[in-house]
Amino acid sequence: MRIGKSVRLERFVNRNTNRTIIVPVDHGISIGPVEGLIDMKETVNQIAEGGASAVLMHKGLVRCGHRTRGQDIGLIIHLSASTDLSPTPNAKTLVTSVEEALKHGADAVSVHINLGDELERHMLKEAGEAAEKAADWGVPFLAMVYGRGPKIKNSFDPHIVAHCARVGMELGADIVKVPYTGDPDSFVKVVEGCCIPVVIAGGPKLDSERAFIQMAYDSVQAGGAGLSVGRNIFQHRAIRELVSALHAVVHDDATVDEALAMIPRPQ
């Protein structure tokens, strides 16, 4: 690995634990300006103060979230996109380049691939090419890989998730993001089949803080490398405190009860 890539990786992967907490805030292109993504400076500030490793966003949002003050945080720029208004919302396409991401100050780049979609071949091609370009520049590459398509009945099926992780690895990713399989025993198999760090997605907004933190705890105990979670963080009533609790779980091996005690109860 080039020294430049190592330096950039250590900006958002803890060098002592080899784990990370990434908070994607790239949802605006997909679903519009939802709650939590209006005042970007405040949202990013709370995420950073809580101890997250990086935020992940599209290039145009960098100017909205750059604070010029407060605690620093890593920046991952997302290269691919689609909208929920499209007749093919699962078909992601590249909307910027590694070089453009570097111009915006990126520490890493990411792409999204939906295996099983009718346009899977295009996503695989573009992801492979982006991985090569990122390697040329010494830029860490994160692949978000999900099973979504007509032949896939359950995106959380352990065999599907393991296949997703393996695809990201074999395309040249440095980190791969996949759904959590629902239990540690099955997630162990996902991690074992992938020689790069595996982080979990948060999925739909959860109503239970305990369920969310339990998922984070179980995933790292099963060998996962942390989290890449958006709505369950940026739409929480206490972003800073929730991220601090997750930091304790991911980096300090805190228990679920210890982490929950760090989050203030609703008034």
TrEMBL record:
SMART domains: DeoC (SM01133). One of its GO terms (molecular function) is fructose-bisphosphate aldolase activity. Coiled coil: none annotated. SUPFAM superfamilies: Aldolase. It holds the Pfam family DeoC. The active site is at Y146, K177. Its EC number is 2.2.1.10. InterPro entries: ADH_synthase, Aldolase_TIM, DeoC/FbaB/LacD_aldolase, DeoC/FbaB_aldolase, FbaB-like. This is 2-amino-3,7-dideoxy-D-threo-hept-6-ulosonate synthase. The lineage of its organism: Bacteria, Pseudomonadati, Thermodesulfobacteriota, Desulfovibrionia, Desulfovibrionales. The gene is fbaB2.
